[in-house]
Specification:
By secondary structure, the chain is an alpha+beta fold. Helix content is 41%, strand content 24%. The protein has five helices and ten strands, in the order H-E-E-E-E-E-H-H-H-E-E-E-E-E-H. Strands 1, 2, 3, 4, 5 and 6 form a six-stranded antiparallel β-sheet that branches. Strand 7 and strand 8 form a beta hairpin. Helix 1 packs across helix 2, helix 1 packs antiparallel against helix 5 and helix 2 runs antiparallel to helix 3. It is elongated, with a radius of gyration of 26 Å. The N terminus and C terminus are likely disordered.
């Protein structure tokens, strides 16, 4: 009898605690998440310049830990690469090539655009459950956290996992038509985001003659292709002779990645608190 009464009293306390968690603490965490993700979203939008009201342009100097075959400056405006000024020293003859984006061209960085869209979708999910919304069950909270975490994981993955491309895909990309003077036919370039860095890869090619005794084996998709990779494009076979990778750190991308990590941890902590209550009952209390 005493044990039953203690058990009933304990259950009543737990039910009160769970009720407080649903009504008070959940909303406090949701507010915290909204604040953090709005900060992350602002990073992608970037502060506007005082003059024109457009998203401000930022210049980044490309660097590498190896030889300085490639040098340049990239101009980023939000999710658009609006200028790329690149100098390339050809290894074979030390000839210096210079090429830059045409004035009427800019290159959209799809990874940044997608990451921002996922962040905004997470904010939308959170705002749909405002402070007046009453959560009735723990499963409702878990579903919301799972949905928010999915968007945040996708946002983070877009910045941490560049697309794998084949060399023909890079060769047929609109990026090849962005430059003036036009890129020589034996040069390919690719831009991508990797974590908090904006990366440029330059591939130098040589034509494989029909009489070559080399065993032609086309390379598959990759983030970064190595010298010796072969491909066919426009009825011509090529081999990569040199690869140059240079990069620049974009500080606000680093901020965004930190915000994603903190937000995912908050979501998981709230999920864990909800789940703890299930261990006190034989049935799921939500």
């Amino acid at each position: 009898m005493a044990a039953a009464m203690a058990s009933a009293a304990e259950r009543a306390v737990l039910e009160e605690e769970f009720k407080w968690l649903l009504q008070e603490e959940v909303h406090a965490v949701l507010k915290q998440l909204q604040d953090i993700l709005k900060e992350a979203s602002h990073r992608f939008a970037l502060p506007t310049s005082s003059s024109g009201g457009a998203v401000k342009q930022e210049n980044f100097v490309l660097s590498t830990s190896g030889a300085d075959q490639v040098k340049g400056v990239l101009t980023l405006q939000g999710d658009a690469l609006c200028q790329a000024d690149i100098n390339l020293k050809m290894p074979r003859n030390n000839q210096l090539l210079h090429f830059a984006f045409r004035e009427d061209k800019q290159w959209k960085l799809q990874q940044i655009q997608d990451a921002r869209n996922h962040v905004n979708q997470a904010i939308y999910l959170l705002m749909n459950r405002d402070v007046n919304y009453q959560f009735k069950t723990g499963s409702e909270v878990l579903k919301l956290m799972d949905a928010v975490m999915l968007q945040l994981s996708r946002a983070r993955n877009r910045l941490t996992t560049p697309a794998t491309l084949t060399l023909p895909e890079i060769a047929s990309s609109g990026l090849t038509k962005m430059f003036t003077p036009a890129l020589p036919p034996d040069i390919l370039v690719n831009f991508y985001i990797n974590l908090n860095k904006l990366c440029l890869t330059v591939y130098q090619l040589h034509v494989l003659q029909p009489s070559t005794t080399k065993n032609f084996k086309p390379a598959g998709g990759s983030i970064l292709h190595n010298p010796g990779a072969m491909f066919e494009f426009g009825n011509q076979r090529y081999e990569v002779s040199h690869v140059h990778k240079v990069e620049c750190v974009v500080p606000w991308l680093n901020d965004a990645l930190v915000f994603f990590t903190v937000s995912l941890q908050l979501c998981q902590q709230l999920k864990d608190k909800i789940s703890v209550f299930s261990s006190y009952w034989n049935y799921r209390p939500y």
